[in-house]
Design a protein that fits this description.
Bound molecules: adenosine-5'-triphosphate, magnesium ion
Radius of gyration of chain B: 23 Å
Number of strands of chain A: 10
Distance between the termini of chain B: 48 Å
Number of domains of chain A: 1
Largest sheet of chain B: 2 strands, antiparallel
Strand content of chain A: 25-35%
CATH superfamily of the largest domain in chain B: MetI-like
Strand order of the largest sheet of chain B: 1-2
Helix content of chain B: over 70%
Oligomer: heterodimer
CATH topology of chain A: Rossmann fold
Largest sheet of chain A: 6 strands, mixed
Number of strands of chain B: 2
Number of helices of chain B: 12
CATH architecture of chain A: 3-Layer(aba) Sandwich
Chain lengths: ~260, ~290
Amino acid sequence: MAEIIGGANIIEVKSLSVFYSQFQVLKNVNIDIQVRKITALIGPSGCGKSTFLRTLNRMNDLVEGARTEGRVIFDGKNIFDDDIDLLELRRRVGMVFQRPNPFPLSVFDNVTYGLRVHGQTDPTSMEERLFHSLQAVNLWDELKDRLQTNALWLTGEQQQRLCIARVLAVEPEVVLMDEPCSALDPTATARIEDLMYQLKQKYTIIIVTHNMQQAARVSDYTGYFLLGELVEFGLTDQIFTSPRDRRTEDYITGRFG
Amino acid sequence: MARPKANDRLIRISLLVVALSAISILAIITIFIFEQGLPIMAKYGLKNFLLGQDWFPSEKSFGLLPMIVGSLLVTLGALLIGVPLGLASAIFLTEFSTRRVSRILKPVIELLSGIPSVVYGFLGLMFLVPFIRETFGGPGLSVLSASIILGIMILPTIISISIDSIRAVPDSYREGSMALGATKWQTVRMVVLPAARSGLVAGIILGMGRAIGETMAVIMVAGNAADLPGSLLAPVRTLTSNIALEMAYASGEHRQALFATGVILFVIIMILNFLANLTARKQSRK
Ligand SMILES: Nc1ncnc2c1ncn2[C@@H]1O[C@H](COP(=O)(O)OP(=O)(O)OP(=O)(O)O)[C@@H](O)[C@H]1O
Ligand SMILES: [Mg+2]
């Protein structure tokens, strides 16, 4: 697979296996994630896509009984090494969840949350980051007069944008998105997809999606997971037009047909 | 088709009757207390009741200030002890202990609220009062003893309600926070507790109500002198104690003055509830 991938890798996953207690969810996954590209992960329900994503920022550490084998090299370092700064890793590898989960705080407090958590509480730089983050997700104009509004009052789409802004505020390098549009209507979905396209200029994005068209539309690379295995990984065009593996083809055509 | 509807109506009407009778019983009690207590307050002047420092019922002197101050002091003391301890325990049990530990400890804590208050008072009298007398001086029967006993007595209330409201905070908030690189403690402090605030305040209000209304345990450890306490180590009498201590032999205006004590207690509790609710709402809107 290596030959179809040129350019710089920001994440290299090597022989990754993940277990929940006795149950093996990911089996020997190898994948290289390219910097400033959108990588889509597709596959049927329960095949381990979310688990894979949550491994990359070690959110799986929080799951009781979760165990990992193999390596994930991010910025030249194995994230499972003992001397890794876990909080810094999560700052650099941000995550957007399936259901928008803004905190029940003001818009301002939501966006600046990560800054305060990491001790960057200088008021002017907070304001600046607030502006840039909201601007980046095209929310600034809508919300600039409502910064003290409780975020729970926003629409679903605004909430999801806010959650993305919240991640951008701490200046991550990678943004993990786990079915970020599944709670949104088609128009909102289209606008979030546009947003991903803009964000690609600065960030590496890995998105899990159940929506085949979405994967085809937004991503540069696509990986197909089945029962914990990465069946196929490559350029999105190639995966969708001439998949090498029968199983990939079945899945894609099954969904399209 | 008609049947479920008729059923619904029947159920609604019976619930209405039950609710109305419960409410009217409460209303009758309230009216009775006010009816008994207000005339004497009118006769001797509200000011003398609220600000008078001398309680000599036989000489028609009904100053309740020492008891008002006493009730407020021991309630405040109980909250100062019970709230931090209670919140800390609830936070520990929900966020920082394994599920097994909290599954064992929570029922144990709830059991504590079932212990009769006379037992708390007795334990306080046997151990706490002598301890305070020997360590800090004074009679031992004091504001401090009453505050500590009450603080312990309101712990189960505060802990179990806090646990419930912290558990009700969706995990997605915790995940969102941790995924931004927050520590567990930051997550609790900056997201979980604010999200649980209205429940936490409800627990504190209930605890406060229990503290200000508690009688038996306070009588046993507070000393009950009807004077303004000069220090935390001085004895103190609360409004509830005032009623309980004298009701057996009070008659005439003395008896009415005890009802007036009840009226004042009633009003104070209403005011405290109102204030607590107000702060809760104001903060959550922010
Ligand atoms: N905390 C957990 N404990 C035990 N098993 C889990 C846990 N989380 C997920 N699993 C199991 O691991 C497998 C993979 O789950 P995962 O959520 O990664 O799948 P997914 O591909 O994201 O599915 P979906 O498309 O439905 O979101 C599933 O069989 C699931 O039941
Ligand atoms: Mg998933």
